[in-house]
Each structure stands twice: as C-alpha cells, then as structure tokens.
UniProtKB/TrEMBL annotation:
It comes from Mesorhizobium marinum. Signal peptide: none annotated. Keywords: Membrane, Transmembrane, Transmembrane helix. This is Cytochrome C and Quinol oxidase polypeptide I. The keyword Membrane applies. The chain crosses the membrane at residues 7-27, 39-58, 70-90, 102-123. It comes from the Bacteria.
Amino acid sequence: MQGVARNFFTLAVIYSILGMMLGLSMAMSQDHTQLPTHAHIMVLGWIMSSVFAFFYHLVPAARNSRLSTIHFWAAAVSSIVMLVTLFMFYGGNAAIEPVLGIASLVYFAATMLFAFIALRALWGGEAAGARATAH
Ligand code: HEM
Ligand code: HEM
C-alpha cells in the first residue's frame, strides 16, 4: 500500500483505536451518551477510511489522480473536526453545532469527489485503463 491508500489506512487504524477506547469507556462507565460519537468514529472513521484505502490500493488509476490527494486531505481534516465536535456536542456543548454541520458538509463534499474519482477511474475508458495497467 502506498500514497493516498497508505494515508487513508493510517487514518483508519488511528480511528479504530480511538473509537474502541471510547466504546470501552462507555461500556465500563455504563454511560452511553457518546453512542453517536463512538458509532461515527467506528464507521465513518475506521470503516469508510479503510474502504477508501483498499479502493485506492486496488485501483491505481484512482490513486494516481491528483484529485485523490485533495480527497484525502478534505476527508481527513473534516472527519477529525466532525468527530471532535461530535464528542463536544454530546458532552453538552450545543454551541459547537454549526462547526459540526460545516465539517459534515465538507466530508459529504469529499465523498462526492471520491465518487467522481472512483467512477471515472472505473469507467473512464482507455486513458484510465492504460494508467491502471502501467502501475
Ligand atoms: C472494544 C470494542 C467495542 C466496544 C467496547 C463497543 C461498545 C459499544 C457500546 C457500549 C455501544 C452502545 C450500545 C447502546 O447503547 O445501545 C456501542 C454502539 C455501537 N458500536 Fe461499538 N463497541 C466496540 C467496537 C465497535 C466496532 C469495531 C464497531 C464498528 C466497526 C462499532 C460500532 C458501533 C455502532 C455502529 C454502535 C451504535 C449502534 C446503535 O445505533 O444502536 N463498535 N458500542
Ligand atoms: C456527513 C456525514 C454524516 C452525517 C451528517 C450523519 C448524521 C447522522 C445522524 C444525525 C444520526 C442520528 C444520530 C442520533 O439519532 O442520535 C446518524 C446515525 C448513524 N449514522 Fe450517520 N452521519 C454521517 C455519516 C455516516 C456514515 C458515513 C456512516 C456509515 C459508514 C454512518 C452511520 C450511522 C449509523 C450506524 C448511525 C446509527 C448510530 C447512531 O445513532 O449514532 N453515518 N448519523
């Protein structure tokens, strides 16, 4: 794994550890207030980032696109802001909600960019295919 695939997988592994630590602390304290934060760290953080990592690993035409770097940084920064502000929100800081909303929209935009990168790489015809076989 290299490039953007390796970056995404590194991010995913960090989220898996942080998300499980939060899940364990919820289970041990029997306080499940942070359920949505734990759920999103696990699925949006660990699962989504892993799927991006494996996709970029398996499809070099997608990984070699310069847009994939933009996707990584937009997804990484927005997900970190989103998950931290989600934790603050469920911790009782309701005023943080606009930041959470903006971060969510940026993460959504990043996923739209991924859809474009992925579908273009898979269906983009000879140019994408030639690059895919060359690497
Ligand atoms: C050390 C491992 C884990 C612990 C101790 C843990 C603990 C918990 C706890 C205490 C809840 C709240 C349950 C409730 O109030 O109904 C929960 C919910 C949840 N966990 Fe985990 N969890 C762990 C790993 C994971 C993993 C690996 C994933 C996904 C990849 C995951 C995804 C979820 C989701 C999606 C929910 C929300 C379920 C719902 O909406 O009812 N958890 N977890
Ligand atoms: C822009 C990104 C996203 C936003 C704004 C968002 C928003 C939400 C909201 C508002 C809820 C309800 C929470 C509650 O009732 O307390 C929810 C629940 C849930 N979402 Fe998301 N979500 C996003 C991305 C995702 C993704 C990518 C996944 C899976 C890969 C996911 C999986 C879940 C699950 C499993 C639940 C149920 C657990 C819970 O109640 O927290 N979400 N989400």
